[in-house]
């Protein structure tokens, strides 16, 4: 655990995206290796931390979850303050949640540091028969907007560790 460890870096990363795309479950999977089938939107801002080693340095990831404030413009500037990374999450079975990525990105860029590392995440890839967002559409958007991109499943644990490690490594490299 985090006990009695020398921390070299603390990196704040914010999760953003529509309600019910799986932000809270991605964080639960990464931070506690847990998944809650009946996850409910809760009110207020929360974060969880996980300490990991990158390039022989001890990095404490502080991952913030919007917890029920996903209405347009409801996320306050305090949420974005000091963030060095952001994960823009959509549900690949809900086209609308992907279409809203441009607006979340605009809001993020309006609040965040210009050097913030941003990763686009298409979650729920376990539901492939219900896919509503082709991988190529997301790749094209990510390329145009200069974002990293990955498809994940918080349920099956696919790419969850990898996407957090990828963004934290990129953050480490530029800080
Ligand atoms: P949030 O509002 O973005 O925080 O979304 P939640 O993490 O609360 O998840 C919303 C719903 O989607 C819950 O019923 C979760 O169990 C479900 N869910 C989250 N991630 C996945 C996933 O990767 N696959 C599937 N099939 N369901 C998921
Ligand atoms: Mg949530």
Structural class: alpha/beta
* Strand segment tally: 6
Shape: globular
Q: How many individual helices?
A: 6
| Euclidean distance between termini CA atoms | 24 Å
Physical arrangement of strands within the biggest beta sheet: 2-3-1-4-5-6
Estimated share of beta-strand residues = 25-35%
Mean pLDDT: 91
The biggest beta sheet, please? 6 strands, mixed
Bound molecules: guanosine-5'-diphosphate, magnesium ion
Order of helices and strands: EHEEHEHHEHEH
Helix percent reads 25-40%
Instruction: Identify low-pLDDT runs.
Output: none
Gyration radius (Cα, Å) is 15 Å
GO molecular function, one term: GTP binding
Membrane topology: Lipid-anchor
Subcellular location: Endomembrane system
Keywords: GTP-binding, Lipoprotein, Membrane, Nucleotide-binding, Prenylation
Textual characterization of the structure:
Belongs to the small GTPase superfamily. Rab family. Its main location: membrane. It is a lipid-anchor. GO terms for molecular function: GTP binding; GTPase activity. It is found in: Endomembrane system. The mean pLDDT is 91. The chain is 32% helix and 25% strand. A hairpin with a 2-residue loop joins strand 2 (46-54) and strand 3 (57-65). It is built from six helices and six strands, in the order βαββαβααβαβα. A six-stranded mixed beta sheet has the order 2-3-1-4-5-6, with helices on both faces. It has 175 residues and is α/β, with parallel strands linked by helices. The protein has helices at residues 23-32, 77-80, 95-99, 101-111, 135-145, 160-174, and strands at residues 9-16, 46-54, 57-65, 85-91, 117-123, 148-151. The chain is globular. Residues 23-24, 41, 65, 67 line the site of magnesium ion.
């Amino acid at each position: 655990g985090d006990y009695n460890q020398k921390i070299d870096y603390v990196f704040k990363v914010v999760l953003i995206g529509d309600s019910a795309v799986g932000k809270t479950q991605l964080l639960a999977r990464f931070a506690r290796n847990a998944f809650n089938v009946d996850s409910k939107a809760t009110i207020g801002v929360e974060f969880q931390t996980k300490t990991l080693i990158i390039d022989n340095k001890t990095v404490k990831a502080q991952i913030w979850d919007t917890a029920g404030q996903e209405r347009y413009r409801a996320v306050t500037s305090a949420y974005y303050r000091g963030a060095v990374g952001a994960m823009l999450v959509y549900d690949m079975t809900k086209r609308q949640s992907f279409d809203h990525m441009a607006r979340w990105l605009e809001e993020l860029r309006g609040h965040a540091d210009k050097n913030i590392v941003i990763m686009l995440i298409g979650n729920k890839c376990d539901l492939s028969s219900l896919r509503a967002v082709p991988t190529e559409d997301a790749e094209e958007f990510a390329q145009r907007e200069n974002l990293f991109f990955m498809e994940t499943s918080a349920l099956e644990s696919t790419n969850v560790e990898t996407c957090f490690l990828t963004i934290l490594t990129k953050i480490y490299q530029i800080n």
